[in-house]
Structures are given as C-alpha cells and as structure tokens.
Amino acid sequence: MKKIIVILTTMVFFLGCKDKGVTYNDPIPEHDSLTITSKYVNEDRVINVWTPLSYKTSSEHFPVLYMPDGGIKEDFPHIANTLSKLLEEDKIPAFILVGIENTERGRDLTGSSEAEDDKQYCPVTDGAKDFRAFIAEELMPEINKKYRTQPKKGIIGESLAGLFVMETFFTAPETFDFYIAMDPSLWWNNNYLASSADTLLTKLPEKDLKLWFAGSSVEDISQYTKLVDKALQKNAPANLTWKYSDEPNEQHNTIFRATKEKALIWTLNN
C-alpha cells in the first residue's frame, strides 16, 4: 500500500495522468505538423516537428530528439525554443525535435501496475508498450522518410513522460541512444523500476547509451531517483554514460524548465 502523502503532492501526481494543468505563454516556433494514423494506439496522432535553421540551408542529416507531451499547448514550444537558443550560443549540435501531442496521457505513459492506489491517479493505464511501438514502428519510419535524419536519436520527458523515458531505458533500451528524464514518476507500480534497477542494469545491451535524469524536492519521487542513482553507481555497465542531477530546491512543477538547458547540453554533446 502506497504511503499517504500530502494532498498537494497527491494532486501533482493525479494531474500527471491528465493534461498538464500549467499554461505558459511560450512563443510558438515555426514548425511542421502532421497526423499519423496508428494501428498500435488505434487512433490518429498529431506530431509537431521543429527543424534547426541549418536544415533549410544545407543538405546535412540531423539526429532526432523525440518528446512525449509534445503538443503546441504542451512542452513542444519551450523545448524547441530552448534548442534554438542553445544552438545559437553554440552549446549544442543541431537536432530535429519531434513532439507527440497527448490524447490519453495516463494510458500512453504508464505500464501495468499491481498497486491498487495507482488506479486513483491513472484510471486507464498499461498503454506504454503500445505507445512505444507506435514511436518505434510507425513514427520513426515516417520521420526518417520525410526528413533528413541520422540514426542517432533520443527522448526527453518529465513526470509521467519521465517515467516512460525511464521504463524505455530499462526495458527497451535499444529504442533510443540517449534518454533524458526530469522527476520521473518512479513511484508507479510500487516503485518497480527503482527497486529492480540493479537487475535491469545487467540486461542492458552492449551498445553505447547515455542517460541524464533529475529528482526534485518531492520525497515520493526523489527517494526513488536516488535509489536508481545508487544502483547506477554500483552496476552501471561500461558502455553507459550517465548523470544524476539532484535538485532539492526545485519542485515538481519547476524542475523541467529549471534543468532543461544543462540536461540538453550534457546529453546532446558527444
């Protein structure tokens, strides 16, 4: 039984399964939008694509950063604007950003759970495997067909999207080359991923991988990000480059914007 936590924290978790409740007036960057009909999630999905300025002025191929919570009214604008800023400052190489707009957020970003309490946060769950298949089998081929891409690809997410990032890293690590997760909801399913991290790390493939993740002041998240940190300190394979950013001065609703620049700079550079 998950321990009782303060009402405010519980509400943060609950909102994580629905659309994010905070609205920012981020400038909407120039971008493409396309719709993909998916057999895996059994619906049409709206995809937003930002390309760097050099995409139009060169014949280069670019690595790709994928992002759940990637709608125009979600996190796509501020991440695209941040990539543009960091690129202008010559702090990162050029990337294509692919944002996936939410439909049923809690369903797509969670795996199965044996914890009864999880149902009150996300009534419809266990869609992560189908969402991952949509990304790998349908979205990636479409992006590779329409855009000049390199094989190198990664994913970024916060909260439940961070949970999806970490679950993909641990259970389907070949999907991406690098992973970025802010305040991942590792309490999910009786904190299965954090508790199993030692074992899961031994199953990583023999390919170069990169992981950056952060934990805020929320105890029911930070205790599990720290648990993963300890597992990595003991059992990270040599082919994994990783960094944990402990952020005790950040809250759940501030950590994404507070850490995104340093996360992108560390992860996107070779």
CATH fold-level label: Rossmann fold
| Main pleated sheet | 8 strands, mixed
Q: How are the strands ordered across the major sheet?
A: 1-2-4-3-5-6-7-8
Could you give the count of β-strands? 8
Radius of gyration: 17 Å
Q: What percent strand?
A: 15-25%
Named at the architecture level, the CATH assignment is 3-Layer(aba) Sandwich
Name the shape in a single word. globular
Q: State the CATH class.
A: Alpha Beta
What does this structure look like?
The protein is of the alpha/beta class and 270 residues long. Helix content is 42%, strand content 20%. It has one domain (7-268): Alpha/Beta hydrolase fold, catalytic domain (Rossmann fold), CATH 3.40.50.1820. The protein has helices at 7-17, 53-57, 76-88, 105-109, 118-121, 128-146, 160-171, 188-195, 197-201, 219-235, 255-268; strands spanning 32-38, 43-50, 62-67, 96-100, 149-158, 178-182, 209-215, 240-246. Strands 1-2-4-3-5-6-7-8 form an 8-stranded mixed beta sheet, sandwiched between helices. Helix 3 packs across helix 11 and helix 8 (188-195) runs parallel beside helix 10 (219-235). It is globular. Mean pLDDT is 92; it is low at 1-15.
What's a quick, concise take on this entry?
This protein has 270 residues and is of the alpha/beta class. Helices cover 42% and strands 20% of the residues. The protein has an eight-stranded mixed β-sheet with strand order 1-2-4-3-5-6-7-8, sandwiched between helices.
